[in-house]
Amino acid sequence: MKIKRINVYLTEEQVEQRVKELGAEISAVYGDEPVCLVCILKGSVFFTCELAKRMTCPVEVEFMSVSSYGAGISSSGVVRIVQDLGTSIEGKNVLVIEDIIDSGRTLSYLLENLKTRNPKSLRLCTLLDKPDRRVVDVPVDYVGFVIPDQFVVGYGLDYDQQYRNLPYIGFADIEE
Ligand code: IMP
Ligand code: MG
Fold first, then answer.
1. Domain 11-150 belongs to what topology?
2. pLDDT at residue 77, as a whole number
3. Cβ < 6 Å from ligand 1: which residues?
4. Which residue of 48, 80, 102, 104 could cross-link 138, Cys pair, CB 3.0 to 4.6 Å?
5. How far apart are the C-alpha atoms of 107 and 116, rounded to whole Å?
6. In the 8-state DSSP scheme, what is residue 161?
């Protein structure tokens, strides 16, 4: 399978504007309290950086890598922690940053795992949400854009590790 064509769905300006809004909305919730942003590698890196820049509360950025996908476009259902957090989150306000929620399998596993580490609060922010594809229910606190059931690339999202660097989000036309 390879990508035939990418059609722009959300422009760089649209994404930037929405990230600004989310930054303001989330900052208002935490006020002066410190927040630990947990960036889920690799897809959320671009979003996490841009969102962090728009946040006004004290921010710590941590990384975690989980795998639930192979090189294809559908979730395997098997979630594995590839790289764990380098720090304890006990007693901290934790905001998990995800690029996209599709089946919900990755996040549902991850949230359960993080809960056992006793954070002060645990919330979830995703840039994109594909509710039509949900298999497992996940409580999402902040959503950038709700999108239809189509495969997207860009702004961190990949197809077989490519296209993450596109400044916009596009629908990928995949050739079987
Ligand atoms: P879930 O476990 O099915 O919710 O999968 C979430 C993960 O699948 C995301 O973090 C992405 O890495 C990947 N994913 C799901 N949909 C897409 C898409 O449309 N484009 C690129 N990656 C996707
Ligand atoms: Mg991916």
1. Rossmann fold (3.40.50)
2. 65
3. 43, 68-69, 75, 98-106, 151-153, 157-158
4. 104
5. 14
6. T
